[in-house]
Amino acid sequence: MSGEETHPHSGGVTIAVDGMGGDHAPDVVIDGAVAAVRDLGVHVLLTGLRSELERRLAARGSPPGIEIVDAPDRIAMEDHPTTAVRQKPNSSLVVGIRLVREGRADAFVSAGNTGAIMAAGLFELKRITGVTRPALATVYPTVQGGTLLVDAGANADCRPEHLVQFALMGSVYMAGVFGRTNPTVGLVSIGEEATKGNALVQQTFPRLQQLPINFVGNIEGRHIPAGTVDVAVCDGFVGNVIIKLSEGLAGAINALIRSEIEASSLGRVAALGVLPAFRRVRRKMDYAEYGGAPLLGLNGICIVAHGRSNALAIASAIRVAKQSVENDVVGRIATGIAALGLPDEGRADTLIGSEPGAAD
Questions:
Q1: Phi and psi torsions of 188, nearest 5°
Q2: What is the value of pTM for the model shown?
Q3: All domains of the chain, ordered by start, with CATH?
């Protein structure tokens, strides 16, 4: 349905969804929202150009549980984040985040411009008191089921206190949303010894030892896909390199396997026997199954879905948003940060530096 009155759905969770965000919007966004309403029982406020969204919803039988909020402007992937947010206050992205600020939605989901989501989140929602840098947290598929990588690209240059906050926020998120009891936290370095790493890592290590979290020490890059820890902490530069390298490596391995299978008739026949196993592995490694990456540290829930998201990925991101609301992730992070007694430094509009890219 559509209308102007928007408010949290009585008895359930209301999620604002950027109807125009992502490479394949609005169709995959609509399909994902329809699936989420059906399977999760959420109410969706779909932001975007009303005439276009109404026409596409009508083609799907105008499913219930979805309300359109008119937002005639659109922020493109190539737009400069801060400039676009300021010049397009009526974009689907900014309007969606504003719905959270105004209390008309419980959370926001978008597959759009990551930097713009960060900028709009800082302008509209502000930071949790005591948080100096919000961080992009993404689930890295592992043999153990998934490790949360924080930061995955929002902050290229960090100080020790930033990584301390990333560790605490990541621990709270994994416990609240993924149900990991006393999640283990590791600091990404070039060696497991406490004396290894650059100045940032060496200065952060003793501070993490003082936190009320399950810090297990330094980890190397090889420990992340092995699922050695529940939360891997690093600056956004390192985190984004890890994510992008892994995406490229996974694609290269798939291409090599396909090439070898197709090289001979015997290989093609043998592949039939292992095809079900390959499909199961692909599903475990599929980003669409894990949903979006939360921007931890904002005073509201913002989930960033992959720019190439399909309908399953959008539905999964809405599921993550719902779980974050139900487990009061923002409140729990606020309580944890307040207990640290760290100074609240920096201005929101000066924290937008490098272009986040982990979820692009």
A1: -70, 125
A2: 0.84
A3: 14-350 (3.40.718.10)
